[in-house]
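Q: I have two molecules that I believe assemble together. Could you output C-alpha cells for the complex as a whole instead of separate predictions?
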Amino acid sequence: MADDRPGRGSGIIRWIDHRLPFMATLEHELHEYPTPRNLSYWWNFGSLAGIMLVVMIVTGIFLAMQYTPSAMLAFDSVERIMRDVNYGWLMRYAHANGASMFFAIVYIHIFRGLYYGSYKAPRELLWILGVIILILMIATAFMGYVLPWGQMSYWAATVITSLFSAIPLVGQSIVTFLWGGFTVGDPTLHRFYALHYFLPFVIVAVVLLHLIALHRFGSNNPLGIDMKGPQDSIPFHPYYTIKDMFGLSVFLLIYGFFIFYAPNFLGNADNYIPANPMQTPNHIVPEWYLLPYYAILRSITFSIFGIPAKLLGVVFSFGSLFMLFIVPWLDTSPVRSSRFRPIYKWVFWLLVIDVLALGWVGANPPQGIVVTVGQIATLYYYVHFLILLPVIGKLEHPRPLPTSIAAAVLGSGAPLAGASSPMEKA
Amino acid sequence: MARYTAVSVALAALLTLAPAVRAADENPPLPHQQWSFDGVFGTYDRPAMQRGFQVYKQVCSACHPVNHLRFGDLAALGYTPSELKVVAATDQVTDGPNDQGQMYQRPGRPSDPIPGPFPNDQAARAANGGALPPDLSLIVNAREGGADYVFSILNGFKPPPAGFQVPPGRYYNEYFPGHLIAMPPPLSDGVVTYADGTKATVPQMAHDVATFLAWASQPNLEIRHRTGTRVFLFLIVAVGVFYAAKRKIWAVVH
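A: Yes, here they are, computed for all two components at once.
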C-alpha cells in the first residue's frame, strides 16, 4: 500500500472510483489531508464529538424502537426499556449520559477554539457552523429530556416553552402553538419526540458542512500560524487517526464509568417520579449543560426602559449564545493563539471561571448571594465579549510569532522529511 | 502543565458540583449506611432482600404499591419457580373480561404485576388523609440519597423540637423535607418475625427493606456492574495498545 496516488487498489475499485470517486475522496480527505504537525490533545475533541453524535443516533434509534411517546405510557415505556428490554438499561444509560458527554466534549472544543483563535479568518464560517451545531444540540437535548415524562421533564418543558410568552403581543399565542394545547401535554410530547428524532439528522448535515469548511484551510493549531509548506504538516492518517483512537479509548473510560457505575449521577432524582401537572417540584433545574443559560435567564430581575424583566432575561439568555456568531468580528487581534497574547490569555481563563460561576448559580435556588453572583457573572459575560475582546485586541502587544510551525516544533533548520511517506519510515 | 491541570480541575468541579449543590437543603445530611450493592463490584445481599420483601409485604404494602414489579421478578431474590407460584397465588388479581363480559378475581401468577393496595390514586388518598403513598418500585431512584434516604426516613421519626407544631395526621420526621410526613411510623421492633432468626429491630428492618427497594429500582445493577468490569478490562488494554501504537507511529515525527 505504498502507492499513495488515487486510483490504487483492485480493478473493481478503480472502475467504481473512476465513476464515483469514493475511495479517492477518502484518500484525499483522510490520508493526504495535510494537518499541522503540532496539534495538541485539545484537538482530539472534534473527532470525539463526531463519534458521540454517532453513538447518540445509534442508541437513540434502538430506544425509539421501544419507546411510546404518549403522556399515558411514556414513563412506563422507559421503565420497560430499563427492566424488560435486553440491554435496554445499557442503551438508555448510554444515551442519557451520552448527552452529558457530548456537551462536555463540545464545550471543551468551543473553549479550545476561543483560546487558540480558531474562529479568525479564514475560518469564520467554520466557527459559525459550529455555533449552529451547538444551538441545534441544545434544542435536541432539551426535547430529549422531556421524553421520559418524569417530573423534571414535564416542568422543564413548561418553564422553557413558557419563555416564549415573554414575546410582546404574540407571546401567549406562540406558546399555545408550541404546546398544541393550553398546557404541556400529550400533543407536546408527540411533537417533541418527532423533532427529537429529526434534529440529529440536521446536526449531521451541519457537521458535514463544518467538515467541508474545516478541510478548506485545515486545522488551526496551538501556534495559530498558517502552514507554510510540507514541512509544517503531516498526513491526517495515520498520525491523527491513531492519536484520536488513543484519545477515544481514554474518553470511553470516563463515559463507561458513568454508564456502569454512576448512571444517575448526572441526572435528577425527580425525573424518576412520573410527570404530575398538579405538583411543582421544589427546585426546577435543567441538566448541568444548560445551567449557565438558565442562570442568565434568572439573573435579570429588573426591567429596563419599561421592558419587562422576563423578556430581558430571555433576550440575554439567548443572546449569550447568539453572540458567539459575531465573535470572529468582535476579536480585533491579528494574532490567533493566546500563547502570544499576554493579556487575553488571562482574560480567557476569567471567562472560563465566569461560565463555571454561572453554572453554579443556575444550580441553586435564586436567593441571597446567588442572585448577586449571577448578575455580576452575567454582566461580566457580556463585558468579556462586547468590550474586552475588541479592546484588548487593540491595546495588547502580542509576543513575536515563530516563523513557521516546523521551526517552532523542531527547532530551526530541522530536517523536513518524514512527512510525505510515513509508513515506510515507521 | 498548570493550565491543563486547571482545566481538568475546573471540568471536574463543574461535573461534580452541579448535582451536589442541588441536594443542598435545610435537612440534616443523610447518614451513609453500608450497602452490599455499593462500589463497582457491589451485588444485592439475597437474604437481606428476602427479609426486605417480607417487611414490604407485611408492612409497607398496606399503603404502597410496587407498580413496576411482577411476581416473576422476585426470582432475583433467590426464590425458586415453585416458591414464586406460591407467593403469587397468595394475592388475588383482577382478570378479564371473560366470555360473559365480566371481570373476575383469580389467584396471581408469576407473570402478573404485583397488585397495589388501592384501585386508583383517589382511593389511596381517601384512605390516607389526602396524602398519596408513593410507588416504591422506583423510590430509591426517585429520591436524592437513594437507599440512604429510605433508611433515614424509616429511622427519622422523632419527637418534634419544642415549639414545632405538628398538625393532626402528620408526623415529625427529621429527614423528610419540611419535617412533616403523612406516614405514621411504620416500623417498630418485632413488627415482623424473620424466618431466618434475624432480630427484627427497626434499623435492621429499615436496612433490609431499603436493600429490597434498591433492587426494585435497579434490578439490573448486578449485570451492569459485571458488564462494567469486562468493559473496563477491555478498555484498559485498548488504552495501552493505542498509546503504544501512537508512540511508535509518531516516533518519526518528533
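A: One point stands out. Chain B touches chain A through 47 residues (CB under 8 Å).
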